[in-house]
Amino acid sequence: MAAGLDTAEVIVPPDREGFDRAQRRHRRNARLRAIPATLAAAVMGIPLGVYLSPILLALAILVTDLANLVIAMPDLGGAVWALLDDLVNGTPGALQAIAWILVIWVVPGVVGLVLVYLCIAWRLRRLGGEGIALALGGRPPRTDDPDERQLVDVVKELAVAAGIQPPRVLLIDDGPPNAFVYGRDPHHATVVLARDLLRDLDREETQGVVARLVASAVDGDLGLAVDVGAVYVTYGLMMTTLGAVVSHSARVRWRAAVPPLLGRRHDPIADATGVAALLALAVDDDTPDTNAAGCLTLLTMGGVIGTGVGIINVFLGGPLLAYAWRSRAYLADATAVDLTRDPEGLARALTKLAEARAGVPATAWLELLLVIGGVRSDTATRTGHVPRLSDSGLGVSVAPPVFKRLARLRAMGAFALEPDGRPGARDPAPGGPPGRHFPRWLAYLVLAPLVALAAVLLLVVAALIVYLAAFAAFIVLTVVAGPLHELLRGIAGR
């Protein structure tokens, strides 16, 4: 391929763009696109928040009543029942009623979810990616291998260019040709590469791959990937907790994930696997153990709420996450070119990886930090035994198509070759765009009504799910907590 590059005609696109301008543009786009993605992540929590708020209120009532057996405590339950009676009878004004409904049905659950999310994000940063790398078979480079020594030198050179401490290097002997990076910050990062990359790529291409990993670290993707993973782990933990009331499989996952999240670490691989299992929002085997346990699903509503969260994720959260993260992928490509001043090396590497159908290793929430994604790999799944973020039902791949990344690299001066050596390949990966395209205005004209219809249906389904969650929580608050409240207050005699 190197000989072909010497004789091939370089095709310069008319819309040339410098890497510095590309960095500014993609950084701005990433910030703007992060806003709707963050709002979508918050919307996913509405069904959970509506269900959890009365549950938390019922727990607060029962704790107060238990404390009342020892020392006089205010009658919180009596105040809540009186307020509910007023709301049913329409006694408060409209604004006052709305405020109290938010206090009872929304605010406590949302605040609880935010606190759980913050704790999980903190713990994921502590867990890092060590267990995931070990599960994939990561090992240090061998000093007697010249290719691996050269890789370490390349990593050090690019770290100096980026102004960070040289990342630690791990290699995977058995896995798809891919690479990713993890760490709590750019100065404590680890790059993980498949050993086959050193065999398939030349030095410039390897340099482009390593530069892409270093670029993700210096651009702030390490923390953001953990934040995104924490969102899905939080929702997965809530769904698993609801399912654990009636399902043995959910209880098994809960016991495997909660100790690492609480800081009780034992085996890095087992900890990573247990936490990553929560990424799957909907689990098919969470069926009730018995018919009697199945009746409890009327109160836990785990299946209904999980369906609601999953629908919002597939049609709203996942697409907006992909929309935001793809800008960060383009930004990392531009930063990699800034570090190497060689867009062609990264472009050729992406071309080869796409032609090889590079798989997505079982990297859990670190899937966002892969050099190339979007293609599943059964081999990686069997090797790593760690679920991926894709298993949470995102609906779309968070990785941008390779042909779009190549187009942007080509605008910065790179050119790619097709397998037969012809210059100017647009999409070396299967599934690329066809040669002819519809006009953009026509696509908008066709898609706009469909998007509007889908949005209306999504709102209707979400509203129905929220209503069912509120109804189930109301049953817990009144039918379950009410009699217990009266019993405890009667025993205390006050």
The strand order across the widest sheet is 1-2-4-3
State the assembly state of the protein chains. Answer: single chain
Q: Quote the average pLDDT.
A: 81
User: Runs with pLDDT <50, length 5+?
Assistant: 1-14, 379-384, 416-436
Strand content: under 5%
**How would a crystallographer describe the biggest sheet?**
4 strands, mixed
Ends apart, CA distance between termini: 87 Å
Structure, described:
The chain is mainly α and 494 residues long. Helices cover 66% and strands 4% of the residues. It contains 20 helices and four strands. A four-stranded mixed sheet has the order 1-2-4-3. A hairpin with a 5-residue loop joins β3 and β4. α2 packs antiparallel against α16, α6 packs across α11 and α17 runs antiparallel to α19. The longest helix has 53 residues. The radius of gyration is 26 Å and the shape is elongated.
